[in-house]
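Researcher: Here's the sequence for the chain we discussed earlier.
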Amino acid sequence: MRILIVEDESRLASTLQDLLELDGYLTDVCHDGESGLDNALSGIYDVILLDVMLPKLDGFSVLRRLRQAGSAVPVLMLTARGDVADRVTGLDSGADYYLTKPFEPRELLACVRALARRQPTLRSTDLLEYGDLRLERGSFTLSCGERSVHLSRREFDMLELFMLNGEQVLPKETLLVKLWGYESDAEDNHVEVYISFLRKKLEHLHSRVKIKTIRLAGYCLQQND
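Model: Thanks. This is the structure I predict for it:
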């Protein structure tokens, strides 16, 4: 699951990033409202942490524009403001939850988990199934029948994305941004390498599920008879 952090205080942004990544999330960080809105509109994020007091474009404006564009991504607003009027403004602008600084790390993580559960494909469960495959989120274990293999973090993130999207074709560009982030130096061959890793593990498991290459389009899962 990928989370966007829009926070202008570099130290806090770094702390939030470390906290979320230690809990297993992928993250990207923006330090102003304009870049935050641009990233949020990409549609690749599952949850957004949005500060109110931002340079260039404040958090309320970012949120209103995001909702006006039709995005329903869950948004957790972070702010030092504790006034009822500010909380009302945030919620009326389309925020899903409002957390006042300073906050406890456990409370923040609980809020993120609660917002993630609002996404239909991200319901709170440790087991994801597709075809004859079972992917255990807690242990990064992929199983088929009596056979099982352990996946690396990147393999897990990629296969989870495929399983959540089923037979929908995912372009290389989507995989790169979703799994490595906008600021990464990763290139197309990084995707190809991990596709190869996953294909070998699917073969080892004797699974009927394959990763199909769609020429000039991308990749998707396919269930063979």
